[in-house]
Amino acid sequence: MESTEEKIEEVLLVASMDDILISQVCAVLEENNIPFIKVDEGSGSYMNIYMGFSNQEKKIIVSKENYDKAGELISPLLTTKEEEGLEDEELPEELKEDNTEDENMNAENSQKAHAMLRHILGFLVLVVPTIIVLIVLIASNIMN
């Protein structure tokens, strides 16, 4: 028996850890009726369910047939200062300096903040139900 299904070749459109960018890309593709697949790398899907966010890379995959059209539609979201026509001499002095150390510190602090938030939420998930059970047990003993 021959398969009547056509094999669709999938290609990577964009990959990013930026949730806002990924959301914008998805919105543009949906508005233009371009089918896509959003893939969370690693434990990203579980993190989204458990924490409401993920610090894992997300990928948007489209068919090869829709790749060029999708790329044109999302290109304004992916512009850089060179593409916008800005040269270094047009930037204020504080922006011309090499800020890689600051960027690394910001990324490191962000990761630490996310880890701390996960620990706090994990603690609350365990402690709050325990406190509720204790209150119920104390209240039922007082009633008796």
Keywords:
alpha+beta; 144 residues; three-stranded antiparallel β-sheet; Alpha-Beta Plaits; elongated
Give a short account of the largest sheet.
3 strands, antiparallel
Share in β-strands: 5-15%
- The strand order across the widest sheet is 1-3-2
Which fold name fills CATH's third level, the topology of the largest domain? Alpha-Beta Plaits
Order of helices and strands: EHEHEHHH
Average pLDDT, to the nearest integer? Answer: 76
| Helix/strand/pairing category | alpha+beta
Description of the molecule:
The protein has 144 residues and is of the alpha+beta class. It folds into two domains: 1-84, Hypothetical protein rpa1041 (Alpha-Beta Plaits); 92-144. Helix content is 56%, strand content 12%. The chain is built from five helices and three strands. It has helices at 19-31, 44-51, 64-74, 93-96, 100-143, and strands spanning 10-16, 36-40, 58-63. It has a three-stranded antiparallel sheet. The radius of gyration is 24 Å and the shape is elongated. The model is unreliable at 81-88 (pLDDT under 50).
